[in-house]
Please model this.
Amino acid sequence: MMIKTSSNIRDTQGILGKSALYIVATPIGNLNDISLRALDILKTVDVIAVEHIQNSKYLLMTHGISVPLISLHQHNEVEAANKILTLLTEGKRVALITDAGTPAISDPGAILVQQVRAKNFPVIPIPGANAAICALSAAGITNPHFFFYGFLPTKSIARQRELVTFKSQSFPTIFYEAPHRIIECIEDMIEVFGANRILTLARELTKIFETIHVSSLADTLNWLKLDLYQQKGEFVLILSGAEKNDKSQVSEQARDTLRYLLADLPLKQAVKLAATITGENKSTLYQLALRLKQSDQSE
Ligand code: SAM
Model:
């Protein structure tokens, strides 16, 4: 006998003709990584909004799904959301999927969800694959907390400026990165965090050439440079948190003090004064001051 869970009841209500928007997670590589519930929903909705029709066609075909599609991507999300609102007003059930993983996580979807919520239609998440969580689950990181960042800025100076803000964070931080920026991204991490911070590089998750490499930033960079092949594909990077006694870290208070002093004083004087006020290491503050100045000049 099948046990009827509250989620089955909820889906059934939808099938009976109640408008709803389903946010459906799809695989990040292996096409079997999709839930039975997701398949049920995708087979029975009136319309599926897809990020790129070409990229979802194979998944939908493989699972025998032939529902009308409309396109929703980062450049048309507002107009697409209006179309979906009209469909919901007509009593239709609509699903949203993106190219891979969970919609609205470093992907379009949040604007649509906001608008649908504002009109009081139900938004029903259908959970499944997500590259960040998939990588974290296999990283062996014992810290129970983590921070998800997603994509870093594409330019090195802006990327370093962003990375500096995580310097003393004790949680692991999860980034997404494109293959053509993987080397320069790790070089920037070395610049900001030093060569010894541990990085988990998770590449091509759930696909044939899945690789999970855990090592120091410097080792990871060498390993990548020695094997061009490892520079291809899709990447999740998990940067381990700062050690509590890491001498290269400075407190938020020292960072703020230094920023404040740098606004009015020459660099060396600002560093000297910041070291006296905060008790932080002078050469660490000097390195940080150089980076802060560099970031300001690039703005
Ligand atoms: N919404 C997706 C999710 O739930 O993970 C993320 C979409 S984002 C546009 C795509 C990025 O996710 C890729 O550039 C890569 O950093 C990461 N990613 C997606 N699939 C991956 C995979 N199979 N292996 C490693 N990283 C992956």
Q: What stands out?
A: The pocket of S-adenosylmethionine is lined by residues 28-29, 98, 100-102, 105-107, 130-132, 176-178, 202-207, 234-236 (CB under 6 Å). DSSP finds twelve helices and ten strands in the chain. The first helix runs from residue 6 to 15. The CA atoms of residues 204 and 210 lie 5 Å apart.
